[in-house]
Amino acid sequence: MRSGAAGELVTEPGAAPLAARVRLAVKAVTPPLLWAALKEGRSRLRNSEQLPVPQRGAVSGDPPEWEYVPEGWAREDSDPKVRGWDVDEIVESYRRRWPSFVRALEGSGPLGIAHEVVGDTVATEDRAAHNTLVSFAYALALAAGGRERVSVLDWGGGIGHYLLVSRAVLPGIEIDYHCQDVPKLAALGRELFPEARFVSDESCFDRSYDLVLASGSLQYSRDWAAALAKLAGAARGYLSVTRLPVARVSPSFVVVQRPYAYGYGTEYLGWVVNRDELVAAAEAAGQGLVRELLVEASLSAEGAPESPVEHRGFLFRPRVA
């Protein structure tokens, strides 16, 4: 055994690492059921260490970034601070970050690109973002099916970030891109991509698409189940619902986010959707689950019936009658 860089212990060629030999020795004298329980406990501890705790405001005494809303969407009608996503501050933040986002997608670097960041520089080494974008590329490739042209509805797609990502991950494939979002974001999208279609009404449901994407957006619909049914009806190929906060035990519930650290002078409500409720609603809309996807994100809402909660992705396809 010799000492490696920065004091790291490494073994001579052909020798098993010391930690591995110790594990094997312990396992040899441990009953199988107890060994399985120890592994499960270790996994739960590791996962709990990765999950964030509720975040307080920037100033001591400020409300937390995430908080449970027991009255649900009635808060939107009674609290003037809950202004939603259609605000100038978000548009201007996206506009400032756009050149950084474009540069991040150039070349052959990793897809660890996250545009929702504190500050004006887009992250380029974000492993969670890399997982999200590679998962999107998987869904897009399935939807394209080897064809030279693929149609996409990016529901809640902001200013068209996924159009640029689509062109980067499937070069040479024509992307027939349609995006639906709030008026201010759709307006900036039309400015950046005049060749694409950006709308803020429901005319996007007048046709069908090879891929319907709802990335970090379904939770912001008052009636998420009704919205999911519309999305399912427009998906002749695949339906991807991702970056969705999911509850595993509690029924779906509502939280508020105060994203002031990102420069967004607003608050908005969103669902934490029960995972089984989501799958059942998709199945009722004629969709079958193709693949469930892990998303490296979680939130802890103060006072919530279930906290912390993870995010997940779900790739559906219409069931064959």
The CATH architecture of the largest domain would be 3-Layer(aba) Sandwich
Number of strands: 12
Order of SSEs: EEHHEHHHEHEHEEHEEEHEE
Count of helix runs: 9
Distance between the termini: 63 Å
The CATH first-level class of the largest domain comes to: Alpha Beta
Low-confidence residue ranges: 1-27, 33-56
A few lines on this structure:
The chain has about 325 residues and is an alpha/beta fold.
What does this structure look like?
By secondary structure, the chain is an alpha/beta fold. It has two domains: 44 residues, no CATH class; 261 residues, 3-Layer(aba) Sandwich (Rossmann fold). The chain has nine helices and twelve strands. The strands form two sheets. Strands 3, 4, 5, 6, 7, 8, 9, 10, 11 and 12 form a ten-stranded mixed sheet that branches. Strands 1-2 form a two-stranded antiparallel ribbon. Helix 8 links the parallel strand 7 and strand 8. The N terminus is likely disordered.
